[in-house]
Every structure is written in C-alpha cells, then in structure tokens.
Amino acid sequence: MRKRLILAMAGVLIGSSLNPLIGGVRPALADHCDPSVQGAGCEDVGPALEDFADIRRVPPGDGGVRAGRGSFTSRCGRNENGHRNSDNHIVAPGVSNGAHHVHDYVGNLTTNGSSTDESLVAGGTTCRLGDRSTYFWPVLRSRQGLGAQPSASPSPSAAADADADADADVQDATSENATAQDVTARHTEEPGGAAEGNVGTILLARSVTLQFRGNPVSKVVAMPRFLRLITGDAKAATNGGANARAQWTCTGFTNRLTGRYPLCPRGSLVLRVLDFPSCWDGQNTDSANHRTHVVFPARNGACPAGTRAIPQLRMTLAYSVPGGPSFAVDSFPEQRHNPITDHADFENVMPDRLMRSVVTCINRGLRC
Q: Mapping DSSP to helix (H, G, I), strand (E, B) and coil, where does residue 341 land?
C-alpha cells in the first residue's frame, strides 16, 4: 500500500511539471494513474470520479433486450491464451492498430485487422462444437500501481505460460523491480497501449458467457454465415448516446443496469452486459455503418417490419476488480475511458449445421 501511494504521489509531482494534453497525446507518466488516489490528476487520461456509481444506489429497472425462453450458449473460454490486439477487422479492415485500444478475443484464434471470411474459416477456435466465430471487446484494466499486460497476442511460449496461469484473475507482465521509466517506454511502444492513453494492468475476465437468445414475439431464423455485428459506440462520449449500449452491473444486482462503472460490494463481481441487435434485413451480412443491416427490436421484443428475428447474442463478462474507482475500459484517446463507450463485435463463423441446432434449440424453448 505504501509503495502504491509513493508511486501515485510521484506521478502527480512529475505530471504537474508536464504540459497538459496536446493533440490527443496522453501524459507519458500516467501509467499508474489511479483516480481513487490522484482524483483530478487523472482528468486528462480519464476516467473521472463521476464516471463511477455505487450499484446499491442504482434503481432497479430495464434489464436490457427482452428475450424469449430458449437459448444456446457457446462455450469459448475467457481468453486464457491471451489473444489480444488493437485491430478491428469489421470497422477498420486491413488497418493495424485501427481500434487504438486493445481487444480481448475468444473463439477464432486468428482474428486481427487483416482477417477475412476465408481466413476465419481456416482458423482454429477456442469454442466447442466447431464454432469458429470471433467474439471481441475492449479490455478492462486495473489502475492500481504500475504494470500493463502486453497488448498484442503473445508468442507460442508466452501463450503456453498464459495457459498454465489460467486461474489467475490479473495478468501482470511487469517485473517487481521495473522502474517507471522502463514501464513507460515499454507501454508506449505497444499498439493501443499507453501512447493511446490505455494504461494499467489488463484484467482477465473471471467468466465469459456467450448466450444466443430467442425472441419473445416470434420464432428466430438462422443467422447467415459471416454476418458481422457490432453493439455500442466506441466514440459515444463525443458522438452522443444514440448508439450507446453500455450496460454495467454487479453480481447480485443484475436488475440494476447503469451506464457508469459500478462500485460493487465486497464479494460481488463487476459485470459488463453487451446486448447485440437481432432484427436482420434478410439480405446483407454487413452495411456501410455496420448497423443498418441488423437493428435492435422494440421494447416488447418485436422486430420492425421488413426484418426477421435472429438469435440475439448477449455477452456477459465478469471481473474481479480493485476496490474503489480504480479500473477502466480501454478506449480511443479522446473518449477518456468513459464507461458509456463500452462495445463489442462479433462475426458468425459457425458451421451451418451448428447454426441450425442453435435455431432449433431456441425455437423449442430449450436451454442448450
């Protein structure tokens, strides 16, 4: 504790001598920016203290997208193998570091900015039953103390080490004896890392639940292979909330969803609930804005005229986080880690036979 406070105080003293944020570049010594310790000293990096809310003070309310009784869960692990990069083949195809923040991946083992439908079909997967789909979301980081998990996917030997440590909740790649200068230099070189304002230790999710759910009004039809979906808006802090879909809560309080980072009671895990759209236009696997080919249903679950209900994907990510407001989701630099920017992406690469099984299970009201 004493060590962490000394590091935090050093960051404030050094940071006060630096110029403020210029041209979107983050302070180099913000690697250990902890809003619970430094408060306003973290404003240029974010998040702000007001971005957090005590879950016990969030009123019960909307539970997200309404679903029918049937569901199918694809079991793909929680990224124990450390597949990460700062790409996004859906929104920024062919661009290295197109996301400017780091994503966690489960499912397809080959996903990066250069991925194509064909390369994904040829890739391996962490999912059961041959599901080669790719599921990804921005990482969540602890802001307590120095340290950062490597942004890019590790080498095969590093991946083996990650498998051996799969039960660890926090993966810390920083040596106990590393200096602040050493850590800053290493972070800055990592795509999507400190140079983009994404600092701290990457937290490995305690659990990842990928559930395809039914529609409460009608039966669902199969998703076409290579359907691409996004949910949320990674730039919602500056774009406004029209496409924001961030839903945060805590275990034991799942009837209370908030757009702010939840402060959970002791023993409760932070949950990110990411609902995807589920009303397909019946023709396209993508669209120019990656949204109009599949839209969200009405509050009662009904799909708009001219669209068909498909299995509705809900990702639920659970984390053990530091106490207090000392964690943040990766973001574009100008978004300052606002929790409303939480988002996720998916491309369906299930074999057709598996997708037929998903549809049958859902339409029969089963839980598979």
A: helix
